[in-house]
Design brief:
By secondary structure, the protein is an all-beta fold. The chain is built from no helices and 5 strands. A 5-stranded mixed barrel has the order 1-2-3-5-4. A hairpin with a 3-residue loop joins strand 4 and strand 5. The termini are far apart. This is TRAM domain-containing protein. InterPro entries: NA-bd_OB-fold.
């Protein structure tokens, strides 16, 4: 999971449990998401990279590209 790219489907931010969709295991799956740095707010539609995975369905993400 670490290093895979995904897209935010529910805003990720401090105090929020966001959601991302990641292509994995031949399909696309939704994961609960938190900001990797604990402070960033990542808007819906942003491409993100998975920095940490806590099985079964939680990931910590960071924006993949600067905007």
């Amino acid at each position: 999971m670490v290093g895979l790219m995904g897209r935010v489907t529910g805003t990720v931010g401090p105090g929020l449990v966001g959601e991302v969709i990641v292509r994995v295991r031949g399909g696309a799956e939704h994961f609960l998401a938190h900001p990797a740095d604990g402070a960033s707010r990542i808007a819906t539609g942003t491409v993100v990279m998975v920095m940490e995975h806590l099985p079964p369905r939680t990931v910590y993400v960071t924006a993949a590209y600067d905007s």
